[in-house]
Amino acid sequence: MNAPSDARPVTDMLGRTLLVPQVPQRVISLCPSQTETLLELGLDRRLVGRTRYCIHPGEQVKPITEVGGTKRVDLNVIAQLQPDLIIAEKEENPREMVESLSQIAPVFVTDVVDVASAYEMISRLAELIGKPEQGMSLQREIQNEWSHMIADAPSKRVAYLIWRKPWMAAGPQTYINSLLKTAGWINVCADPHAPSASRYPEISLELLAEKKVDYVLLSSEPYPFQEKHLSEVKSALPQARVLLTDGEPWSWYGSRMRRFPALLKSLHESLANRA
Length: 275
What we know:
Helices cover 36% and strands 17% of the residues. The radius of gyration is 20 Å and the shape is elongated. Strands 5-4-3-6-7 form a five-stranded parallel β-sheet, sandwiched between helices. Strands 8, 9, 10, 11 and 12 form a five-stranded mixed β-sheet that branches. By secondary structure, the chain is α/β, with parallel strands linked by helices. The chain is built from eleven helices and twelve strands.
């Protein structure tokens, strides 16, 4: 891989230094929330590749070439697209895949673990594609929406489940955990000092009962929890209120962050109606 004549050094969110064009013209995005954000920032026709999971905004992503999934891509398809920049995410995309892609084009890796790093991601991507003003504008829009958000008093104990068989939850050092804190809730699965501390720990419903959880949120992704799963969790946790929740505002950082306050308001209303 040869550096372009107008290359500039850029440091990604892992501290890796890359040589990227002053204004990249052929970009591939491998994380759904970033694809949506890049289009929001105005990348438009310069975004030439995406994963099959990059589905928003629908009309804009349809003509963009699919290159595979978030964990495995078709390197031949990516090479044929002749990208001058690939954007990846530490949590979504395996290191081995990033290393292989680095033989084709510079790979800028983000690392979003909380709300602060989500804002950093927006500004870094905006700078990277030559849209710094749009990045600042998007952050202001998000902050304006969040300024009206009402959080609970920090006393309710919550579990946010992302998988079934085995049961898995959002744990410490995750963006979801950061949002739970923002909502004013205590994440019972986020003890960083636990012997088997994991960002997405396996957990049993029996252990959740021992943790005296108040609310259990069943996310729509990555596991597609549905109404039929509510009774299963309620039977094991009769003292808890169990709700389905849209996983996208919880885990799609970037432009979709604007939707989180409305989702939280809806959850508060559902919990109040079930009191």
